[in-house]
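Follow-up to my earlier ticket, as requested here are the two runs.
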Amino acid sequence: MKITKVDVFPVKIPFQRPYEIASAVYTHQPLVVLKVHTDENVWGLGEACPAYEFTGETAGTVENILNERLIPVILNQDPFNIEAITADLNSAVVGNASAKAAVDIALHDIVGKATGQPVCNIIGGVTKSRISVTGQIGMASVSESIETCKRKAEEGVSTFKIKVGKHHNDDLLLLKGIREALGPGPRIWIDANQGWKTADRAARVIRKLEKYDIELVEQPIPSWDFKGLSRIRSKVNVPVMLDESVHSPMDAMRAIQEEACDVISIKLMKSGGIHNALKLNGISEAAGIVCHMGTMLESSIGVSANLHVIAALSNIKYWEADIPTTESGLADDTSTGLNITSEQGCCCMTVPQKPGLGVSLQEEALRKHRIDWGSWRPAGT
């Protein structure tokens, strides 16, 4: 089997409402969808979800890098040779992780389809057949956030990831209100997206939040400050999870050596795809560090890839999962095939069992949301 052609679709899909974190506000989600063709009439879907705050990429840079550097590398290659292709991609260009992730995801989709297996079966099998939905709560007013949490809890969501990190007094009011509204049962994670800036300030805020039974605190201070992160861990009782600090297997090694975290968050868009994510998880597991599978608010192509990795790896103990077009999510989707079920009152996602990723492309959505480079600029420019 040989790769013969790659179609590239840059799109921007609006959010139902602006999605705010400590470091940015998003009104649209830029995505670059790939359709990788082979000479055996098997094709695979991939997705890049660039975020310049995390990977230094935009939809424009991803499209250019794919066309100029990465696609020429993979043409005429056997898509089963994922290790060799990964090395070639890394030789072709430094960084550009989400562009590489799009290629990697498409390769795994092809291999799954060619072998008649869902992606999870070709990377380890199934350790979880149902994935509980996580309620992701972007920044809003305290009252809006509380009401959103209450609605999601009524739908069967029992794990909530709350964005914090701009004003610590607001963070305290927010967590107090959410815990009082939800009661003692639901799990609450908080993500500061580097917003608390210094280790001492972060430790003070986290200690004040501990009484609200916080299960995880994610990326409290800037990504480069490993010593500060280690200091935070020595001062608080909540496990510290690293996201922006850990992109590659080498970053995971440093985080472990510096004793900077209790949990490592894997994102396919940071790691360069599934193949590197498996390596990152293996390093973490060998060191006794559990992993979390995070998202960059991808469409169903990326979410499906995430679900397969979550299902296959027993060391992933935490995750984010939801239909991309859920409340406050994307206004449209690039593909179909993901489902939510309710089991004993718990809202769960089913791991797709069709060959490959298990999703079907919505080409009309790609046409509808295709980027007009003459009129669009990233938020904040």
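Run two:
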Amino acid sequence: MRKYGSVHTKFWTHPNIQTISDQAKLLAMYLLSSSHTNMLGCFRVPVGYIAEDLKWSFETVLKAFDELSDINYLTYDAKHSWVFIHSFLKYNPIVNPNQGTSITKLFYDVPKQVKFISQLINCLIEHNEFLPEAFLDTLETLSQPFRNQDQEQEQNQDQDQKQNQELIMSGKPDDVLPNQFVFEKQNPEAKQNRKLLKTQALDVLQFLNEKTGRGYRASDINLNLIIARLKSGFSVMDCRQVIAKKNREWKGDSKMSEYLRPATLFNPTKFEQYVGELVIPKEEAINGIN
């Protein structure tokens, strides 16, 4: 059991938090600081426990959960009584190898049948600083079935779009288009954008290998870290500059050179810091000047 909890100072001013009821805010604070909370941000907490601690009815607890779910703050699996706070590791990052080991143990306690298991795996893949390498390999293996499901869903959506397009071209009435709403909602540029991000991530990973003389594989764990930074608004140039700068600083240090790896360089919190340190001209990153 933890003796203390951490609440980020921006909690109260976040636009989403300001839109929810006082009960939902109190539930969020309870989940961040109660005795049930752990450093993974994913734990078992039956509704009855919350109702007893806060002196609420079951209906009030469930309504507050719904509000927090609507703003994408958490996912609650009522069947198994487990909750996952989506941004917990973002604001409570893993700070040392001992915590990484503890996180591993906590993950294995989570029932693999909970509805948010794929979200939890992806969260750990992104926030993987200080996690054991063997555990990261396990996460990669566990994430594969979910990626296959996503690919199958994309294929089904593509097939639905093709069928709907054929129906439209045939001139048949609108009422025979069973998936018309889905078809209209689809973004034709989304798939192309995913391909572009992966291509950019591969370019960054190749640059890292060239600068450090290493051979990091183009695995989903490595690429997803880079893609996440690109999605958050950083450019390929930013990534290359960070790699070039940290390579110059760390390559001669036997201890620090170990951190010339995707898990450290593209960790969300650390990458923000590294970009803030940049003072070199962009040409230096492009040409690989030492």
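The only thing I checked on run two: The two ends are 48 Å apart (CA to CA). Let me know what else you need.
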